[in-house]
Amino acid sequence: MRNWFGRGKKLQRAVTSCCLCAFILYGYEQGVFGGVLENEDWLRQFNNPDPTLTGLITGSYNIGALLGCFLNFFIGEALGRRRTIWFAMAWIVTGAALQASAYSLPHLIVGRIITGIGTGLKTSTVPMYQSELCDGKRRGRLVSQEVMFVGLGIAFAYWWDFALSFVGGSFAWRFPLAFQAVFAFWVIFVVFGVPESPRWLLHHGNDREEALQVLAAIYDKPSDDPAILEEVRSIEKVLAMESKAEASWSSTFRNDKLKTRKRVFLAWFGQFMNQAGGINLVVYYVLTVLQENVGLEHRLAQIIAGCIQLMFPLGSLIPSLALDRMGRRSTMMWGSLFMGISMMFVASLLSQADGTARGARFASGAIAFFFTYMFAFGATMNCVPWVYVPEILPLHARTKGTAIGVSSNWLWNFTVVMITPILINRLAWRTYLIFMATNVVFIPIIYLFFPETSNLALEEVDYIFATEENSVKAARAMQEQLKLHGHLNMGDSMAAEEGDKDPHVEHQE
């Protein structure tokens, strides 16, 4: 077992450090280009691209991330969690070097695609790795902390761009793009010294003793401790149930007893909601919006845009401390409501911006609702889909299903990034009504189809879907049982319920 960092909390902190740094890098990558787009030297270097070309340049990174998710679908399970993260960092360092040295648009776009491939690999692996190395009562908080660091990365990137804008010249945009490699090198160092996921080890028939050693090191207990042995037995029981589903990659889409196909779709749709609520309109283009729609002078717009980005990590503090008490479903529903209201007020106030002094006051008032939108997103829809994707999926489909789920994030990230400059240019304030509508529509969808998974072990989530009743109702019943009886061993419950019956006999369509 590879381990440079000791046992217990020291090792847990090392794993968390690796995952948090990977996600602050993700946030930095998202935020750094927003400031670059308005840099005068960058605009001259690339011949003042029009809105369509700007969307293509920005969105090429998202296309790369989508390709990275597809790549992870085919290689992630073979490589394992640690090696996939290392492989992702190699792509990111290469892409950062190409972006920082670009003197032509094809050069820049290739660099952004390569960086994006690394990001796709990373974002479809890191939350899964963290989820598999922590207990169910802390999983929501830990993965939420990762996503909070996305907000910190975005905010840092905006202020970093702002500080370097006073330097001028090409250094003001080349150095921030090259700086991505600093975070990547830290992840490369740490990931070499942390152990592989015990669930991946058991899934691939590796030495059971190594999986016991990893769990023992993580929880700082002897490898023959009853709690460690019970967790390994629980994983092995689920693997025994899932064994027939491993025959081919198509098992990811089967309508089996554990409802794998439905769970993959929930993971995909959760990440769709993360993007379709309009977040990248604010992350990438708020500086442009403040100048073109609100009418602010460039330097003031930079300062306000940076302050708006700070609301992202501030909002993310809430779930990073309390998501396991807040619940997944209610957090997403409240978030969609407040984000929809914020977009409604932005549209209403900007619609009154008619070039007069009165219109300017209305337009300035819209700024407040960019703040509320970013805070609400950071506290809710920013984090929950990232927590939900790896925990909702069965082990046999977790790598491929996570890749599919996160690919949705990048597909719709690209779509929003590509169309937003055109929408802002042609529809102006009506753009925000589109995102108001999507947020409102998400509320009943979450209520009807997304079961509550807070405080459940990953193996217990299988029980929700293994029952014949509606998964939302089954989850509600299990949450009530947990309140009354505490942590339950659902591995034994499933075995008793199923007997010798093969749980992967497919339903006839």
Q: Would you give an account of this structure?
A:
This protein is mainly alpha-helical. It has two domains: 9-196 and 273-449, MFS general substrate transporter like domains (Growth Hormone, Chain: A); 197-244. Helices cover 77% and strands 0% of the residues. It has helices spanning 9-36, 40-45, 51-79, 81-100, 105-123, 126-132, 136-164, 171-178, 180-191, 198-203, 208-219, 226-242, 260-276, 279-292, 298-326, 328-350, 357-379, 384-392, 398-427, 431-449, 458-466, 471-485, 490-498. It is globular and about 70 Å long. It starts with 8 loop residues before the first helix and ends in an 11-residue tail after the last helix. Mean pLDDT is 82; it is low at 489-509.
- Give me the Rg, rounded: 23 Å
Low-confidence stretches: 489-509
Shape: globular
Structural class: mainly alpha
The largest pleated sheet is described as: none
Report the CATH architecture of the largest domain: Up-down Bundle
Q: State the oligomer.
A: single chain
Order of helices and strands: HHHHHHHHHHHHHHHHHHHHHHH
CATH class category of the largest domain:
Mainly Alpha
* Fold-level CATH name of the largest domain: Growth Hormone, Chain: A
CATH superfamily of the largest domain: MFS general substrate transporter like domains
- H/I helix tally: 23
Integer tally of domains: 2
Percent strand equals: under 5%
Report how far the terminal alpha carbons are from each other. 45 Å
Count the beta strands: 0
Percent of residues in helices? over 70%
Mean pLDDT: 82
